[in-house]
From TrEMBL:
Listed Pfam families: OHCU_decarbox
Catalytic activity: 5-hydroxy-2-oxo-4-ureido-2,5-dihydro-1H-imidazole-5-carboxylate + H(+) = (S)-allantoin + CO2
GO biological process: allantoin metabolic process; purine nucleobase metabolic process; urate catabolic process
Residue ranges of domain Oxo-4-hydroxy-4-carboxy-5-ureidoimidazoline decarboxylase in the record: 7-162
Keyword match Endoplasmic reticulum: no
A GO MF label: 2-oxo-4-hydroxy-4-carboxy-5-ureidoimidazoline decarboxylase activity
General function of this protein: Catalyzes the stereoselective decarboxylation of 2-oxo-4-hydroxy-4-carboxy-5-ureidoimidazoline (OHCU) to (S)-allantoin.
Protein name: 2-oxo-4-hydroxy-4-carboxy-5-ureidoimidazoline decarboxylase
């Protein structure tokens, strides 16, 4: 899809296409539509990042709260979004041993009890061992650090989803 095609989308079509590049936060795509015309994909990403960075603390925490646990209840119930399903599978989270799953669930529960939002990491950039190590390390951080770290991981997830759409969506027929 070319950037000209993106710039030609009305708000409904733009939100329909980009609404889940930040998991369950279609508001962000709806908001950055106002920033068109975009010069290129990086410009779209920069507008997303700027919107997220300007949110108050509770807005950032809200984005994190909208992310499903890794190999959590929704994954077990097959109720993850298409994107999350693919991302969690790519990290090998669909082939955890019973012991790994128990450890992940225990750490996820501890993390969420401490911070009030789930542990978020870009699953496509990490395999399950790195995710478990990351969770063990990050659960020891403070709230400020984890809010910012989680948001930076959301931006990585968002970037990969954005590139997928730009590369795979046919866009306007030539
Ligand atoms: N809690 C999470 O980190 N969730 C996720 N990370 C991804 O990359 N995809 C997810 O669903």
């Amino acid at each position: 899809m070319k950037i000209e095609d993106v710039n030609a989308l009305d708000s409904d079509a733009f939100i329909s296409l980009f609404g889940n590049i930040v998991e369950n936060c279609s508001l962000i795509a709806a908001a950055i539509w106002s920033s068109r015309p975009f010069s290129d994909v990086d410009d779209i990403q920069n507008q997303l990042n700027k919107f997220i960075d300007l949110l108050p603390r509770n807005g950032k925490e809200g984005i994190l709260r909208n992310h499903p646990d890794l190999a959590g209840r929704l994954a077990a119930a097959g109720q993850l979004t298409r994107e999350s399903t693919q991302e969690q599978k790519a990290a090998g989270l669909d082939t955890l041993t019973a012991e790994e799953k128990e450890k992940l669930n225990k750490l996820n529960t501890e993390y969420k009890a401490k911070f009030g939002f789930p542990f978020v990491i870009c699953a496509r950039e990490n395999k399950k061992d790195a995710i478990l190590k990351g969770l063990e390390h990050r659960v020891q951080n403070d709230l400020e650090t984890e809010t910012l770290t989680g948001v930076e991981e959301v931006k990585k997830i968002c970037r990969l989803r954005l590139l997928d759409i730009m590369e795979n969506h046919p866009g306007a027929k030539l």
